[in-house]
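Structure first, sequence second, as always.
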């Protein structure tokens, strides 16, 4: 059972807390309070991304099991909800869900500014440990100078690719352990 990994849920909880904290922190002590101060755009983006992440899990779950009931009021419980409704699935389907959840965990960590999560993955092409997060491209690039594509550019990877390889390794380990 892989459903005991709550890292993604934990990170979503932190991200949400961070967001609401910033929201509550007003522009001052209240003496000059006006209603014209808008929250920082960054926070709106994070909230958007939280909502999009939750919606993606709900969609993925409902597509596979339309009879899944109402979603939990606490949206950080969405991963548990999804796992509960897909517990009877074939390993391949569970692997797809775990890959999605793991990828969201990486996204939540990076949203909180923790890009070190990238370094815990070997490069899918050369296997070396030295991926660097490129924020603008939203990809993890290999630092091995010999690990390049046909155009001589460093190999770089989307989070979903890293998640795919990571979860595939986990499933392979689990199935050989039984
Ligand atoms: Zn590489």
């Amino acid at each position: 059972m892989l459903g005991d990994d709550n890292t993604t849920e934990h990170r979503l909880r932190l991200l949400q807390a961070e967001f609401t904290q910033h929201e509550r922190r007003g522009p001052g002590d209240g003496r000059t309070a006006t209603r014209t101060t808008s929250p920082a755009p960054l926070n709106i983006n994070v909230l958007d991304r939280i909502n999009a992440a939750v919606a993606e899990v709900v969609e993925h779950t409902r597509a596979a099991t339309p009879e899944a009931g109402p979603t939990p009021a606490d949206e950080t419980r969405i991963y548990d909800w999804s796992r509960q409704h897909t517990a009877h699935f074939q390993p391949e389907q569970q692997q797809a869900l775990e890959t999605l959840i793991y990828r969201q965990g990486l996204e939540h960590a990076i949203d909180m500014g923790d890009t070190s999560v990238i370094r815990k993955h070997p490069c899918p092409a050369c296997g070396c440990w030295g991926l660097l997060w490129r924020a603008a491209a939203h990809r993890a690039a290999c630092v091995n100078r010999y690990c390049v594509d046909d155009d001589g550019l460093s190999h770089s990877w989307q989070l979903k690719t890293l998640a795919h390889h990571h979860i595939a390794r986990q499933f392979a380990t689990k199935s050989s352990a039984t």
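Margin note: Residues 1-113 form one domain.
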